[in-house]
Write a structure and sequence with these properties.
The complex is a heterotrimer.
Chain A (H helix, E strand, L loop, with lengths): L1 H30 L4 H5 L6 H11 L5 H14 L12 H36 L4 H14 L3 H15 L11 H5 L5 H38 L3 H8 L4 H23 L1 H15 L4 H10 L3 H29 L1 H4 L1
Chain B lengths: L1 H22 L1 H19 L41 H37 L1 H16 L2 H12 L4 H28 L2 H8 L4 H37 L10 H10 L7 H29 L11
Chain C lengths: L1 E14 L2 E14 L3 E5 L6 H8 L7 E10 L2 E2 L5 H7 L4 E4 L13 H12 L5 H14 L16 H12 L6 E5 L7 H18 L2 E6 L2 H7 L2 E6 L2 E7 H6 L4 H8 L39 H5 L4 E5 L2 E4 L5
Classes of the chains: A mainly alpha, B mainly alpha, C alpha/beta.
């Protein structure tokens, strides 16, 4: 019961935030130096196409009407035509979105699991050599500069050793051959995904390990840990069932809080590896002055961030009964 | 009278704080590394003394006009048009400190003011400010800056600093607001109110001094994120083209396709960025222990 | 029948400033079905003693000397596996009411079930459920609240749940560490009655730790007064109350108000315990003792037996 109300309230909140972002973007595009019409219409097109887009997006109307057109188009899925690709922006981002989600969610989930697991062990072995090494390692990983680390991985594992492809999501040869089945294609994608995945995974695991470790150290001082021991539970049971269970909660919140940061990292990784996702498209669009595409990519990322925040909040509420009841 | 005892008290706290800090290994390592980087930054002012050949931006070696490895003339080698990499590295240190410290400072000022206002005023002002903070905190700063760069053209370094600060203050403001809320209830605030002090006076004269140590603690984390964002921006090609930052160096390596052939060019800037982030982080953690007694090593209690 | 016998127990903590002897040469015996109260101010070592009996000392705590004889075994020397079997099954603990003894993210009945299942791994689900229900009935808690989370309970109910959990495996000895501190007086009384009734009905021995001598006198057959890590007086409830020997005991007895009789003499400084890292060689109560003499400062006192069951650690004769 409570959970449903909670979700509803959060949905309304993020709806409002998204609306504000939409509006701010609208304003920005118009106060920026230069001709706002040129932002949405590529002067290279034929005059008929130009006029068509202008009327579709309402760019010849007074500003308030423009705003309404803007909103209508947004909810209708019309983001204009990409200058670079010449296709409707919606089609482009629709194709790119799954790639980003695949890479990003896989790395975040794996890193969270690894970080929680290793952080738990590090805290348990506090003071010993294993803890020192793990903490130091995590510190180093946490502070690695994302694009640089990505380049290093490409250089060493891709170029020097040749184990992995240097960029992209697929090897065209594999996909063009008539007899490649789904498994082969799938493996090809995974093969390409491993380096960008590793980049994000290593860095994020470092962060989560540090977080879990300090959370765990705090939890181990709690009284119910003494109770658990007193009940005759094995050390392992105390650690996993009582301590880790409580210590993992703040880590989950931080996955949400650090989303903004990880998305930055995700975009950088996609760019270095030319992984065809939303992040890479945003960077390329900005470099090529492809405004319609850039705007849509940004909005999409904003929506993804807000949704992910909501999911994390709900997950946390589900796991911590003190919030639900 | 009270000023003297306050000052003695402060000195005592500083001395105690230093003793605790000294014990912390991470803090010492962090501080040492930072001193090293600071020396690098200072050294960058002296490179012109060695001749125009060593200018990080325009230095041209008459003998070399392509990327070469480390040697006596150029300790870390040269980049793709023959500029000295070592001096570029020193220059990058200067930029990193400049960007990091100024962006952090501005965001702390903003965040502290907002936090104090929100905590002290409460009600609608509080709600509005915190909602704003939430919104800004949720958005990925790098991408916002990218979009702004697309719309407004090439960004000047100080504009970048300002924008970073504008995106980073929410984190500080939450903490300061929480602190202000607890301080608001304390008797000395009541006393000031009764004495007729205006709200502004109370905020800046009574609340701010108690809140500032917390602000400065969080400064270390602001510095790292500012440096990282600037580096990422420069890496993607949207930094200030007149400044040689470490991120810019990486951009050059990458864009000129030298990343596989020139490790002497690829490694130093990346290592520096990561190391300076690491050292600020360690420093921040050590300072955390100084300022928050609960984090200190266990003292026996019954 | 002697249930548990402690001989010359010493417990120390490793601290930054040195080794702190929290418990120094404690010896006592407890019979089946009897209850013993440990009274003293904070820092006297009573909680440390309670924890040591179950080998629940923190990282920096160690038993440095002595034996804890239970069921024919020395608990100090027992293996980790061995002590786990003794914990809860034979000796259980009721923690301070103010503590977070219950894990906030698990339901209360689940935590009780865990206690039982740890020691009876083969038990069936229905039997487990039945046992938990019986425990709730035992402490007079409504069965509907079983599936609640700890934060949904009031202080008194949480304490009942903790008591129920302690009894889950039918232990022979229950150590109650300040179970009524931080509860209001009425609830305090209820909990004490609960403990007394359980003790009588189930013939369980109780070691009751408290700073409040009145509470201890309410519940316990015998009383041990502790000061600075030592037992300074040991005797039956009547002996200690009616004929206290040690000056500290006398001070404690005057420190609570009664509704009848004269106002007792105001309390002198029951205050700073001596430094337990560099413990004084003479009597530890020397500084606070109104009857101290020069001899007391330098010579460590020995136990004097007033009766076969009543002893005190004092050099004075009076």
């Amino acid at each position: 019961m409570e959970l449903r109300k909670f979700i509803l309230r959060r949905l309304v909140e993020i709806g409002v935030i998204f609306f504000v972002i939409l509006t701010v973007l609208f304003v920005l595009f118009r106060i920026a130096p230069g001709d706002p019409v040129a932002r949405m219409v590529d002067p290279m097109w034929t005059p008929e196409d130009v006029q068509h887009v202008i009327s579709q997006l309402g760019l010849d109307q007074p500003i308030w009407t423009q705003y309404l057109y803007y909103l209508k188009n947004f909810f209708g899925g019309n983001f204009g035509i990409s200058f670079h690709y010449g296709e409707p922006v919606l089609d482009i981002i629709w194709k790119r979105l799954p790639n980003t989600i695949l890479l990003f969610t896989t790395s975040t989930i794996l890193a969270a699991l690894a970080g929680v697991f290793l952080g738990k062990i590090a805290a348990w072995h506090k003071g010993r050599k294993s803890d020192t090494w793990m903490t130091l390692g995590a510190l180093v990983c946490h502070t690695l500069f994302v694009p640089w680390f990505a380049l290093m991985l490409v250089w060493i594992l891709g170029y020097k050793v040749g184990w992995f492809p240097l960029n992209g999501i697929i090897s065209p040869e594999v996909w063009v051959r008539g007899n490649s089945n789904f498994l082969v294609k799938g493996l090809d994608v995974i093969h390409h995904m491993l380096l960008p995945l590793m980049t994000l995974f290593v860095i994020q695991t470092g962060s989560y390990l540090l977080l879990m470790r300090s959370s765990m150290l705090g939890t181990l001082k709690e009284d119910y840990i003494v109770t658990a021991r007193a009940k005759g539970l094995t050390e392992k049971a105390v650690r996993n069932h009582h301590a880790a269970r409580n210590a993992a909660l703040p880590v989950i919140t931080s996955v949400g809080l650090s989303l903004a940061f990880s998305i930055n990292g995700g975009a950088l990784t996609e760019t270095v590896f030319t992984w065809p996702g939303i992040g890479k498209e945003l960077v390329f669009a900005v470099s090529n002055n492809d405004y319609p595409l850039a705007q849509a990519c940004f909005l999409l990322i904003a929506a993804v961030v807000l949704t992910a925040n909501l999911i994390v909040d709900v997950l946390y509420a589900y796991l911590d009964p003190r919030i639900r009841y | 009278m009270s000023n003297l005892s306050e000052r003695v008290h402060l000195f005592d706290r500083l001395a105690k704080g230093w003793a605790i800090f000294r014990e912390n290994l991470l803090g010492k390592i962090g501080l040492t590394l930072l001193v090293l980087f600071a020396l690098m930054a200072v050294a960058s002012f002296f490179t012109p003394l060695f001749g125009p050949m060593y200018d990080p931006m325009t230095g041209v070696d008459p003998l070399i006009s392509h990327a070469t490895g480390p040697g006596w003339r150029h300790w870390l080698g040269t980049d793709f048009i023959g500029r000295d990499i070592f001096t570029q590295l020193l220059e990058g240190a200067k930029i990193a400190f400049m960007v990091g410290l100024s962006a952090a400072f501005i965001s702390i000022v903003l965040g502290t003011i907002v936090g104090m206002l929100a905590g002290y005023m409460g009600g609608f002002v509080d709600m509005l400010l915190m909602r704003l903070a939430d919104m800004i905190m949720v958005m990925p700063s790098l991408l916002i800056l990218l979009l702004l760069a697309a719309l407004f053209g090439q960004l000047n370094i100080w504009l970048i600093v300002l924008l970073i600060a504008l995106l980073r203050w929410p984190g500080v403001s939450r903490v300061i607001r929480a602190q202000t809320l607890t301080l608001k209830e304390r008797p000395f605030i009541e006393a000031a109110k009764v004495a007729g002090a205006s709200h502004i006076r109370i905020i800046f004269r009574h609340i701010m001094p108690n809140v500032l140590p917390l602000s400065f603690l969080y400064m270390t984390f602001r510095v790292t994120s500012a440096i990282l964002v600037e580096a990422a921006l420069a890496f993607l090609g949207f930094g200030d083209p007149s400044q040689v930052s470490w991120g810019m160096m990486l951009q050059w390596v990458w864009k000129t396709g030298h990343m596989f052939q020139a490790p002497y060019w690829l490694l130093p800037p990346g290592i520096c960025i990561s190391l300076i982030t690491l050292s600020f982080y360690m420093l921040g953690r050590a300072m955390d222990e100084v300022l928050d007694p609960r984090l200190r090593k266990e003292e026996f209690s019954e | 029948m002697t249930l548990i016998s402690v001989e010359n127990l010493c417990v120390s903590y490793q601290t930054k400033k040195g080794v702190l002897k929290a418990v120094d040469d404690i010896s006592f015996e407890l019979e089946e079905g009897r209850s013993l109260g440990f009274v003293g101010e904070s820092g006297c070592g009573k909680t440390t003693l309670g924890m040591a009996l179950m080998r629940l000392l923190p990282e920096n705590g160690r038993v440095t000397r002595g034996r804890i004889l239970y069921g024919g075994q020395d608990l100090v020397q027992l293996s980790d596996k061995g002590i786990r079997e003794v914990r809860w099954n034979e000796i259980a603990m009721i923690f301070q009411a103010a503590m977070n003894a219950l894990n906030p993210v698990h339901r209360v009945d689940a935590q009780l079930r865990e206690a039982i299942a740890t020691h009876e791994p083969g038990i069936s689900k229905e039997a487990l459920q039945g046992r938990v229900e019986a425990l709730f009935d035992l402490v007079e808690m409504p069965r509907e609240r079983m599936r609640a989370y700890p934060h949904q309970f009031s202080g008194g109910m949480k304490q009942r749940a903790v008591i129920a959990m302690a009894l889950a495996c039918n232990p022979k000895l229950v150590i109650a560490d300040e179970p009524t501190t931080a509860l209001d007086v009425i609830v305090q009384d209820q909990i004490l009655q609960e403990i007394r009734s359980i003790q009588d009905r189930m013939n369980i021995s109780v070691i009751f730790i408290s700073h409040d001598i009145a509470v201890v006198a309410n519940v316990c057959h015998d009383i041990a007064v502790m000061y600075a890590g030592q037992i300074v007086e040991f005797g039956s409830r009547e002996e200690v109350f009616n004929t206290p020997i040690h000056p500290y005991t006398r001070l404690l007895l005057t420190s609570y108000l009664t509704l009848e009789g004269d106002r007792p003499a105001p309390l002198e400084m029951i205050g700073r315990t001596p430094d337990l890292i560099a413990a004084p060689t003479g009597c530890r109560f020397y500084k606070m003792c109104p009857h101290a003499s020069a001899m007391c400062e330098n010579r460590a006192p020995e136990y004097r037996q007033a009766t076969p069951t009543h002893r005190a650690l004092c050099s004075l004769t009076s």
